[in-house]
Automatic annotation (TrEMBL):
The keyword Hydrolase applies. Keywords: Hydrolase. It is an enzyme of class 3 (hydrolase). The keyword Lipid metabolism does not apply. Pfam families: CpsB_CapC (PF19567). The lineage of its organism: Bacteria, Pseudomonadati, Pseudomonadota, Betaproteobacteria, Burkholderiales. Belongs to the metallo-dependent hydrolases superfamily. CpsB/CapC family. Its EC number is 3.1.3.48. This is protein-tyrosine-phosphatase. One of its GO terms (molecular function) is protein tyrosine phosphatase activity. It comes from the Bacteria. It catalyses: O-phospho-L-tyrosyl-[protein] + H2O = L-tyrosyl-[protein] + phosphate.
């Protein structure tokens, strides 16, 4: 599996605070079946002042230590970029690294407040040639009234990344239900760990993959944790990797499952 969202680089944001923690995270990831991990520290002006050159330097140092200790995890560059006015300029000049130098990048909206002109800002990034992968919308406090906005952005070319831990209940029932809705209704492109530590928020995605497999089948589960992530790293056009066409009929497993959950099947 490929994990495209992690905070494993030590000491540069709210993720791993020491090298030992980062190494423990890497061991957990490998044991879970992850062979490639994107290092995606926060870039948020005024709070986390990371940039492309600094991130790549930190990756080289950690990869060297992984190799020295025979931990079979390949690291690639990226960032968890906050939606700020200067984001497009940062992408263009390399201060904000895309995922492995591709057209794809992780885009993190504010957790607590809908960004002004959210849809217009994201569409401008798409129109400029990038494919934003919007991170963990299921955990945003304002998702309840804005679910349709994310579906419109998907139609315009954005991708959606759901947190593995949200699907397993780590972030509570509300995040779990919204994560399940994005997944079951066919609006999820990628599952990733968003790992921050070797304890509660560790780099595990196999359990979430199993949930996806039960709901959507083995083929789509592979799309979520391997095929589409690899397409990102290979900078493949997004239209070659469409979302599943889910049109559940009355009496099917999916429609029965959806009707039992809060939010599922309800108008957002």
């Amino acid at each position: 599996m490929i994990d495209l969202h992690s905070h494993i680089l030590p000491g540069i944001d709210d993720g791993a605070q020491t090298l030992d923690i980062a190494l423990d995270m890497a061991r957990i990831a490998v044991a879970d079946g992850i062979h490639t991990m994107a290092c995606t520290p926060h870039i948020n002006p005024g709070m986390y002042m990371n940039d492309g050159p600094g991130i790549r330097k930190a990756i080289a140092a950690l990869q060297s230590e992984l190799d020295r200790q025979c931990i079979a995890l390949k690291l690639v560059a990226g960032a968890d970029a906050h939606l700020v006015p200067e984001l497009l300029e940062g992408l263009r000049d390399g201060r904000v690294p895309t995922l492995h130098g591709s057209r794809y990048f992780l885009l993190e909206p504010s957790h607590t407040t809908p960004p002004p002109n959210f849809e217009g800002s994201v569409f401008n990034l798409i129109a400029s040639g990038y494919t934003p992968i919007i991170t963990h919308p299921e955990r945003l406090t304002w998702i309840d009234g804005h679910y349709p906005a994310f579906l419109r952005l998907i139609d315009q070319g954005a991708w959606i990344q759901i947190t593995a831990g949200a699907l397993t209940g780590m972030f509570g029932r509300r995040a779990q239900h919204w994560g399940e809705r994005f997944l079951a209704e066919g609006h999820t492109h990628i599952i990733a760990s968003d790992a921050h530590s070797a304890s509660r928020r560790s780099p595990r995605i196999s359990e979430a993959k199993a949930i996806a497999q039960r709901l959507l089948g083995e083929e789509e589960a592979q799309q979520l944790v391997m095929v589409r992530p690899q397409a990102v790293l290979d900078n493949q056009p997004s239209h070659l990797f469409p979302l599943p066409d889910l049109q559940p009929k009355k009496g099917t497993f999916l429609s029965r499952w959806a009707s039992k959950l809060p939010f599922i099947g309800q108008k957002a």
